[in-house]
Amino acid sequence: MSLNQQVVQSLRKLELLLEREFVALKTQDLDDFDTIQQQKAPILRFFSESAFFASGATDGPADQAKAPTPDIPEDLTQQPNTKDGHTGPLTPELTELARHCQTLHRRNEILINRKLEAVRGALQALQSPAHSREVEVYDRLGKLAGGHSVKRPIDR
Q1: Mean pLDDT score of the chain, rounded to an integer?
Q2: Which of 8, 30, 40, 61 counts the most CB atoms within 10 A of its CB?
Q3: Dihedral pair phi/psi, residue 57, rounded to 5°
Q4: Segment holding 44, helix H or strand E
Q5: Between residues 36 and 73, which one has the greater pLDDT?
Q6: How far apart are CA 36 and CA 40, in angstroms?
Q7: Which structural domain, as residue segments, surrounds residue 107?
């Protein structure tokens, strides 16, 4: 199997995993998400070690929860030197698959970041000292726990 075929096959697998990852993130299925990460690791390692994606650059911050995906080379018209020293044009299929996988990765990254921000906001609200002062607790008779009574309108 040629390097070009291996890359296309790996990109197809990555595409399917990124789609499954998105579903797992939406449904908050962390077990499936962890399984997907383990399946993505060898594919990403292949890309980081291949001549196609020699830069190994990442799209997100270093502390990102997901494994990074490689960037697409800027010049998509020529394949980098392979082990046998030949260069050749990248196929449109490979270019389209790589761009699609990059888009899926960014979509998943945005979803993860939004979920993290929501969790951080909830934690901040719960930990805020002002939060405990604003909460009013009522007893069984409808009176404030601090001894204040609540005036209810009379239904007529």
Answers
A1: 74
A2: 40
A3: -70, 160
A4: helix 30-49
A5: 36
A6: 6
A7: 3-134
Burial of 95 (0-12, 13-18, 19+ CB in 10 A): middle
Main-chain dihedrals φ then ψ at residue 138, nearest 5 degrees: -105, 145
- Number of structural domains the chain divides into: 1
Give the pTM: 0.60
Q: How far apart are CA 9 and CA 125, in angstroms?
A: 46
Q: Does the residue 155 lie in any domain?
A: no
> Are the C-beta atoms of 63 and 83 separated by less than 8 Å?
no
CA neighbor of 21 nearest in space, from 111, 119, 151: 111
Instruction: Decide: helix, strand or coil at residue 112.
Output: helix
15 within some domain: yes
Averaged over 63-84, what is the pLDDT? 42
For residue 95, what are its two tokens? 């270019």
- Write the single-letter amino acid at 146: G
How far apart, in whole angstroms, are the C-alpha atoms of residue 59 and residue 66? 11
Query: Locate tokens 């390692």: which residue?
Result: 45
**Helix spans in 50-128 (H):** 92-127
> Running DSSP on this structure, what letter comes out for residue 138?
B
pLDDT band at 134 (very low <50, low <70, confident <90, very high): low
